[in-house]
Amino acid sequence: MPFYLSKKVFKQQTKTLVAHWPFGAIKTTHARNLLGQFYGYKDDHDFQKTSINHGIRTIPVTQELVLANYVNWVKKLADLGSMNQIQAKKLLHQLWPGYLSNHISLHEKLYQATLRFHGNCNNFLNNNSEISELVYRFDDRPSIKDTIEACGIPHPEIGAITINNQWVEFGHQLQNGDRVEVYPNPHKDASISMPYKPSGELTFLLDVHLKGLARYLRLAGFNCLHNDRDLGDELLAEISSNQDYLLLTRDIGLLKRGNIKYARWIRNQLPQAQFKEIVDHYQLRDEFKPFTRCVKCNGTIHQIQKSSVRAMLPEDIFDRFTEFKQCSDCKQIYWKGSHFEKIQKILDEARQ
Ligand SMILES: [Zn+2]
Fold first, then answer.
1. Distance, CA 156 to ligand 1 centroid (Å)?
2. In total, how many domains does the chain have?
3. pLDDT score recorded for residue 54
4. How far is CA 62 from its chain centroid?
5. Which domain holds residue 133?
6. This model's pTM is above 0.85
7. Residue 210 Cα, ligand 1 centroid: separation in angstroms?
8. Which of 81, 100, 119 is the last residue of a domain?
9. Residues of the chain with pLDDT under 50
10. What is the CA(223)–ligand 1 centre distance, in A?
11. Is 79 among the domain residues?
C-alpha cells in the first residue's frame, strides 16, 4: 500500500530533492517520478491521482512511521536513485528534517552484523578467549575483508570465513543481520580457504626488526631475505606480493596492505621463541637443512678444501679443525667451533 502525504509536502520534497541531489542536476519531472515511486506509487501521475483517497487506500506518513521505516527507506532511496547509503541517508534527513534529526543521527550506522572470532584471531583483540563475539555496525555494503580488518585482524591471518553458515571469499559483501564466523590461518577443512603459505620451497621476507629470527631461519637452512636497512612498508609489501614471498613482521599495519597474500604477524618477542613459532605454524619440522646457508648474507655455503683457507684463518683455528665451509656469496668461512653444539641444540628444540 502506498504512503499518503499532502500535495503541498510532495511539492516541497520535490524541491528539496532537486536542491540536494547528490549528482548535480536532476530534472523536476524525474524528481517527481522518483518521489512518487519512493512512496509506493507508479510515478508522479499515479501519486497525483491516488493520494486524494487518503485514508482509503493509503497509509498516512507520521513521525513514528518515518522512524520505523528509516532503514528500509534509506535502502529504497539508494536503489531508486542509484546512490550509496550515505548519500541516501543525507537526502532522507533533508526530506524529513523535523522528523529525523532529533531521533536518528545522520552519523548513526544503519546496519549491524555479529562477528565471532575463533582461536588465534583473538590475539588481535586483546583477549585470551578461544571464541569472542562482537557486534559490528556499518553503512553501505563493506566487503567482509574490510570489515574484519576494521575489527583489528589483518587479512593474511584469516584462514576461512562463513556468513550465515556459508563459506565465503574475501570480496563477499556484508549485509544487515549477517552472522559471521572468522577462523585463523590455516583452515584446511573449509571449502573456501584463504592463502596460507606459497606452494613449494618457501622464501621468507623479514622486516628490519627481525634480524635475530633471520639468523635462526638461515641456520636451519631456510631461504630468508632480510635487510639491515629499513625498506619501508610499501616496498616490502610489493616484493612479497610480486614474488610470493612469505612476509614476517611485528607490524600489524603492514599486514593490512591489500596486495599482501602470504604473511604472519610474529607473536613472540625473542628471536628463539619467534623461530619456534614459525617452525610450528608453517610445519617446517621436516624441512630443516642445517648449516647450508650463510647466516650473514643468506648465500649458500659449501664444503671447502682445508688447504685453501689457511691464509684466511687464525692459526689455532686452522690447527684445531679439519672441516671448513664457505659462503659462495660473501666468502665467510664456517667451522664447527664452540657455538656449534649450542646451535644444534636450539635447532633440535625448535623441531620438538
Ligand atoms: Zn654469506
1. 31
2. 3
3. 58
4. 43
5. 111-184
6. no
7. 18
8. 100
9. none
10. 12
11. yes
